[in-house]
Write a structure and sequence with these properties.
By secondary structure, the chain is mainly alpha-helical. It is 42% helix and 8% strand. The protein has a two-stranded antiparallel ribbon with strand order 1-2. The chain has a two-stranded parallel ribbon with strand order 3-4. Helix 4 (83-94) links the parallel strand 3 and strand 4.
Length: 166
């Protein structure tokens, strides 16, 4: 997904893979609840509203995640991995903890139980092509707008970089 949106150019690196090698200084991966989070014995996979309604998750978000933002580069760019982190980042922007223009949007979560959602997100598969029982059908209300937001923001950044270079 990073390659699709040209992150290497946006970050001034040769390849997106460099973020996991000699340019790991440019990547900070975390979670909005940066500790193992379980609900009823299963990994937590709820909405950001669920995070805010659950005292222990909200406390972790406010005590651990939110303060970490001030430790990052003030010009850092943020990408949520799914709807919950995106909602959290948007809230942080609304509260003035980060600038709204720093939140690029969200990627589809590429977990093994994510099925074909990355392909749908990138437009490689249409919703109509999915099996009727494919749970990704019910994620399209997030996936398609998330792609459009990411595309619009990254296109704007690429255009600004091109204009600055001229």
């Amino acid at each position: 997904m990073m390659r699709h949106f040209g992150f290497s150019e946006l970050l001034g690196i040769e390849r997106e893979e460099d973020l996991w090698a000699h340019r790991s200084d440019l990547l900070h991966a975390t979670s909005i609840v940066p500790h193992a989070a379980f609900r009823r014995g299963k990994p937590f996979a709820g909405s950001f509203d669920d995070v805010l309604r659950t005292p222990v998750f909200r406390e972790s978000f406010e005590r651990d995640f939110v303060p970490s933002l001030s430790m990052l580069n003030p010009d850092a760019l943020y990408v949520g991995l799914g709807p919950t982190p995106l909602a959290a980042l948007d809230r942080c922007a609304e509260q003035g903890l980060i600038r709204p223009d720093q939140v690029l949007g969200a990627f589809a979560h590429s977990s093994t139980n994510g099925g074909s959602q990355v392909d749908v997100y990138l437009g490689l598969k249409s919703i109509d092509a999915l099996n009727e029982k494919d749970p990704v059908r019910y994620r399209s209300d997030f996936l398609l707008p998330a792609y459009e937001r990411m595309k619009a923001v990254t296109d704007r950044l690429h255009a600004a970089m091109k204009a600055a270079a001229e």
